[in-house]
Amino acid sequence: MSEETTVLGRSAPLDLRLSDSELETTRDHVLQFVRDVVSDAGADGAVLGLSGGIDSTTTAFLAAEALGEENLHGIVMPSEVNAEENMSDAERVAQMLGIEYDVIEIQPIAEEFFDVFPEAADDKQAAGNVYVRTRAVLGYFVANYENKIVLGTGNRSEALLGYFTKYGDQAVDCNPIGNLYKQQVRQLAASLGVPDDLVSKTPSAEMWAGQTDEEEMGVDYDTIDAVLALHVDGPLSKAATVRHLGVDEATVDRVVELYERSEHKRHMPPAPESLRP
Ligand SMILES: Nc1ncnc2c1ncn2[C@@H]1O[C@H](COP(=O)(O)OP(=O)(O)OC[C@H]2O[C@@H]([n+]3cccc(C(=O)O)c3)[C@H](O)[C@@H]2O)[C@@H](O)[C@H]1O
Ligand SMILES: Nc1ncnc2c1ncn2[C@@H]1O[C@H](COP(=O)(O)OP(=O)(O)OP(=O)(O)O)[C@@H](O)[C@H]1O
């Protein structure tokens, strides 16, 4: 890890874990939510991208239970920046659940974009987002054809930090785990029987080889969750949050900066107000 990407603050003694009864209620609530969204849409089930990570795995476990495995279609979409192990984990999840799944190689599709605008092809953020948005197009391609909805896998931590690609992995019809902080997703996953190696896997958006969420954001998820819960979602001031968590001001500032600068990602694109009365 380079000096600029040192992960800030690692002492966040805030326990956001759900109690056993909250876990059960959360699970039931999400199952009903998924059933309602699918049925309100008049759809025949759902499609989701499987990455072998904790978010898509947890969402798949919940959706298979909510809809029945025959109504969930997984898509595994490898590119040259994905670790093979993650793609085989994604297939393992589909096989464990007994859902239909396809493996669609997206490198050739992404290359078409890189070829027509080669000056951006080496920009890892811009190019990484091409992979993410290509997956979104394919998700809707399958969903349109099969009269299904597209399930998102975003959690509350990512949503508040804007840690997603606009019109990429956020281009979905609903986010079943969208009100859970990252550490609560891990807890729910374990309670659903998601294998331990997937629960404890290092989170990565895999937009370029070797990327990890925590290194890119500069703060670890437990600290992010604690600052979000106390200060962004909660009522504590910055000073009180620093005191409560025993982290430095820079850590709280970094989380707030990520939250504020991603405001545009949480709204419909604005247009000027109408000039007519
Ligand atoms: N103030 C503003 N008002 C309106 N629009 C604004 C804007 N600032 C930027 N924009 C627009 O937003 C664009 C930048 O946003 P975007 O294209 O999303 O790109 P950006 O936020 O730069 O990159 C996506 C981030 O999400 C992370 N990610 C992606 C996918 C999955 C996951 C995961 O872990 O699940 C994480 C990824 O590692 C990266 O840090 C700009 O090019 C511009 O078009
Ligand atoms: N290679 C892939 N194939 C299919 N879907 C993918 C792939 N990469 C990402 N996705 C989809 O985009 C979502 C966001 O990607 P990301 O890799 O950040 O999430 P994740 O791996 O599920 O969870 P984590 O943040 O813990 O790594 C995934 O949950 C998945 O639905």
3D architecture notes:
The chain is mainly alpha-helical and 277 residues long. The protein has a domain at 20-211: Rossmann fold (3-Layer(aba) Sandwich). Helices cover 51% and strands 5% of the residues. A four-stranded parallel β-sheet has the order 3-2-1-4, sandwiched between helices. Strand 1, helix 2 and strand 2 form a beta-alpha-beta unit. The radius of gyration is 19 Å and the shape is globular. ATP binds at residues 49-56, 153, 182, 204. It catalyses: deamido-NAD(+) + NH4(+) + ATP = AMP + diphosphate + NAD(+) + H(+).
Strand order of the largest sheet: 3-2-1-4
CATH homology superfamily name of the domain at 20-211:
HUPs
CATH class of the domain at 20-211: Alpha Beta
Under the CATH scheme, the architecture of the domain at 20-211 is: 3-Layer(aba) Sandwich
Give the number of DSSP strands: 4
First CA to last CA: what distance?
57 Å
Query: Low-confidence parts, pLDDT < 50 over ≥5 residues?
Result: 1-8
Mean pLDDT: 94
Number of continuous helical runs: 12
| CATH T-level fold name of the domain at 20-211 | Rossmann fold
Percent in strands: 5-15%
Question: What Rg is obtained from the alpha carbons, in whole angstroms?
Answer: 19 Å
Describe the global form. Answer: globular
Give a list of the ligands: nicotinic acid adenine dinucleotide, adenosine-5'-triphosphate
Structural class: mainly alpha
Largest sheet: 4 strands, parallel
Order of helices and strands: HEHEHEHHEHHHHHHH
Q: What percentage of residues falls in helices of 4 or more residues? A: 40-55%
